[in-house]
């Protein structure tokens, strides 16, 4: 079992997800479904998929997506475990 004070092996996976989603065109807005599909492609863990599944419907520019993901991560108390995104 992972201690809450030890970063997970999946630390940084959400940052990689955000980077992948915006790799081609960093300034465009992406629909929630694109983020969900990319999360599945990246084979995120169940906990991280829970974070992505909690995203509200809509389209997201990078800053807004990061704000939403960070809010969800913080609400779960997982910021140290999985990292935040920018």
List keywords for this structure.
86 residues; two-stranded antiparallel sheet
Q: Trace the largest sheet across and list its strands.
A: 1-2
Arithmetic mean pLDDT: 93
Which segments are poorly predicted (pLDDT under 50) over 5 or more consecutive residues? none
Strand content: under 5%
Task: Sum this structure up briefly.
By secondary structure, the chain is mainly alpha-helical. The protein has five helices and two strands, in the order H-E-H-H-E-H-H. The longest helix is centred in the last third of the chain and has 15 residues, at 62-76.
What does this structure look like?
- It is built from five helices and two strands; from the N terminus they run H-E-H-H-E-H-H.
- The chain has 86 residues and is mainly alpha-helical.
- The protein has one domain (17-82).
- The protein has a two-stranded antiparallel ribbon.
- The longest helix is centred in the C-terminal third of the chain and has 15 residues, at 62-76.
- The radius of gyration is 12 Å and the shape is globular.
- The termini are far apart.
Helix and strand topology:
Elements: H1 13-21, E1 30-31, H2 32-41, H3 46-53, E2 59-60, H4 62-76, H5 79-82
Antiparallel strand pairs: 1-2
Helix pairs in contact: 1-2
């Amino acid at each position: 079992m992972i201690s809450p004070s030890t970063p997970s092996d999946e630390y940084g996976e959400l940052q990689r997800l955000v980077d992948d989603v915006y790799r081609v065109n960093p300034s465009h807005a992406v629909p929630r479904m694109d983020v969900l599909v990319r999360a599945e492609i990246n084979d995120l863990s169940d906990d991280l998929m829970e974070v992505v599944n909690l995203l509200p419907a809509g389209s997201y520019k990078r800053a807004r997506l990061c704000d939403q993901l960070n809010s969800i991560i913080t609400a779960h108390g997982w910021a140290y475990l999985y990292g935040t995104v920018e």
